[in-house]
Amino acid sequence: MKKPADPSPPPFEQSLNELETIVAALEKGDLTLEASLAAFERGVTLTRACRQALEGAEQRVRILTDNRPDATPEPFANSTAPTIAPPDRP
């Protein structure tokens, strides 16, 4: 039986909120060993998703703040933002 493909990661804010909930539950110490391991595994997955989202945002900021006169915005492979054409140059 094939394992279904992972769905797309949740939005950054949702991942961060879930991660904070997991950390609080782990710090409280009331979980069983198995539940703690499952929560830790989920936390690692969320941490990776958050890191990837932050790296993508950082890349976008670098491109947008590039001071080179010939710099133009580039589309991102995972971007859901609409693409805006650069202004016409004389």
Describe it.
Helix 1 runs antiparallel to helix 2. The C terminus is likely disordered. The chain is about 55% helix and about 0% strand. By secondary structure, the chain is mainly α. It has a domain of about 35 residues.
List keywords for this structure.
about 90 residues; mainly alpha; 2 helices; elongated; disordered C terminus
What form results from the Cα inertia axes?
elongated
For this entry, what is the oligomeric state of its chains? Answer: single chain
Strand content: under 5%
- Helix content range: 40-55%
Distance linking N and C termini: 60 Å
Determine Rg (CA atoms, Å): 19 Å
Number of distinct helices = 2
Q: From N to C, what is the helix and strand string?
A: HH
Judged by helices, strands and strand pairing, the structural class is: mainly alpha
Largest sheet: none
Q: Could you give the count of β-strands? A: 0
Low-confidence stretches: 81-90
Tell me, rounded to a whole number, the average pLDDT.
Answer: 81
Write a compact overview of the structure shown:
The protein is mainly α and 90 residues long. The chain contains two helices and no strands.
